[in-house]
Fold each of these.
Amino acid sequence: MDKIARFPDLEGASVLITGGGTGIGACLTSGFIRQGARVAFIDIADRASRDLCRQIEEETGREPLFLHADLRDVVALREAARKAEIENGPVSVLVNNAALDTRHTIEEVTPEFWEDNQAINLRHQFFAVQAVVPKMKEARKGSIVNFTSTAFMINGGGYPSYAAAKAGVVGLTKGLAGALGPFGIRVNAIAPGWVLTERQRALWVTKEGLQAHIDRQCLKEEIQPEDMVGPCLFLASSASRMMTAQTMIVDAGTV
């Protein structure tokens, strides 16, 4: 993490991250803190999030703001965004990271499962944007980074609702970019490949399956959560000031 490039315009920026307490999100929270940003993150994992805050403070001397909320609850999401604004100032960078790639078959999906899955993986991204956009419009600037996935690009059959949601993130990104560009607000997406978080290792990684996937990659290494930090910082910063409506694939060259 210490080898990540510095982006001076992120120092002092008010950053809001969804799902920032574990996995990729925890690395993003730490990464923005190390840039000198004022970071708030929303998560439902209370203990892990509080542990992360303590760890980051011990390592950097600065503590992110943890906001406990279930992102499926739009009222709670809006309230969390309001608290982030009160504490850190108007949000200038929004990172829509939260997701849950629960495996499921076509046969077992109910309408209730579908709605819940879409709420976690797609719907909250729109309402998080809606919550912070008024102040971005006033400032005539802002950067929004939405996390999608290569899962929908590789025809994976074990998560059709998740794949639909992640494809939807790309469409949402492009639609928001068109709507918000006239206000100087950029909207881009990151599509990670198979990132080996603790959850992935615990639930789905096998030695054979992992090796088969790495064999498909151009870069023959495991993708770590930390590998998403640099691309996200780049899209959040003015280094990418003329980039919008784009999806950056970070998958070691699988797609």
Amino acid sequence: MFFLQMLINGIVVGSIYGLVALGFVLIYRASGALNLANGEFVLFGPYICLVLMTALNVPFLVAFIGTLIISAILGLVVERLVIRQLQNAPTISVIMATLGLSSLLAGAVHIIWGHTTRTFPPVFPQTPLNLGGIIVTPVYLWSFIIVMILLIIFSLFFKFSKIGLAMRAVADDRQAALSMGMSVKFVLAVTWIIAAMVAGIGGILLGNINGVNPTMSAIGLTVLPVVILGGLDSVIGAIVGGFLIGIIQNLAGGYLDPLVGGGLKDVVPFIVVLLILMLKPHGLFGSRGIERV
């Protein structure tokens, strides 16, 4: 039963990891750079949602939608004011810009909301569910359902919508997309908007599970092994990698941490990624580049 309990917790947390990793992958596919401020995007979501619920006394659903709108605006502002100015700069310049943005956003969170842990008002039912002897907290179950619905919506969006197809075209070949009359600037702006929104959603779900404090931004580092494991340019890889890392991390926390005094749970994902990359350098689903010499 303990194994199944850890497995279910890992699946739920892993689904949220996959959702957050999706933002990493989208930006990498569009610009070839890693967004090192993704953890701070995750952090802003639950704080905004909490302010809307507690200060304005709006229902969770309204606060959730409001958070998505504000997160989208944040993503658009970052793209317009920072990323667009670096469109002809080396990739390392973009990465360093996101690193600086990470520090700026983290500082803003500390100044505005402080360091204490805040909890959401009861949003989901509080009575645990007993599924064949396995205790499942409703917040875990609903978080998993919400993430699955969102992942299906995003999959359909990328496959069938005009904007989704344009994003895929720009990711595959920017010059070809330009020659077909596509607006790369518009596509990049939409990419950052979506990345900020999925990060905010992930933060809200994690905030309902564990509470909200500035250390939540560490998920940006935790999700990095997810992205690398699945493949930096693979949406499917981000989802599969999220589940794998979530399950492995929870099993390590349940079985190995008591043996070594704790701390191994946060290290195991990086060990797993290192071993996988020794066999598959491009990740499980990453595309292999072709180099002419």
Amino acid sequence: MSERRAASDAKTLWTPDEFEAAIRAVGAERYHDLHPFHQLLHGGKLNKGQVAAWALNRYCYQSAVPRKDAAFVSRVFDRQLRRDWIHRVLEHDGHGEDPGGIERWLVLTDGLGLDRGYVQSMEGALPATRFAVEAYVRFVREEPLVVAVASSLTELFAPKIHKERISGMLENYDFIDDDVMAYFKKRLVQAPNDAGFALDFIKAHAETRAEQEACVAAVRFKCNVLWAQLDALHHAYVSPAWIPPGAFNPETLDNG
């Protein structure tokens, strides 16, 4: 055991309230609603091509969510935990009459004039987007279960950003309507439920201070994944607007 791990194990276990406060402090400092790109997006400061670039790249993340959750479930021996977690895959992939979050995201990219096949191919996504997203999938596949669960807890902070996005984009963009905001409206209900389960799970199963701190670090890592995606978008499409070879070029978008 490393000296750092031994020192962490020797620390007093946080109370459940202290543990939750440490998790929430990460969001207050690092969640991507603070990123300049999101402030431009919600404030109506981007053009249609820039919004389309965001939606196209974000599809990579949306499509990876059920893959990372399926990877998590494949590692779980506890049947009840598998039952509790599998609905996350279905929330995004769809089930029964619910088309799922990925389909709702494609309605958004359709509304922005992007070809659906092109979006799904992810050929136009930024290299940094792909690397960040796959880093998250690997993290959930490889880290201890309690730490993998903790990485999902950015959902604690999601309702606020979804509310801002719905009101800001509907108010500021004439090419956005209520129908294409369906993904975010659904997540206003889903995200708090999912986050509540995950928070209760880590409070019950992080049994040492080291495990608690690893959970906090997992939330920090996930915030970095989301932040890195916006760094790449800002660099490619806002300033200095340097689009990597092969990535989506807003000038090809039909703005008619």
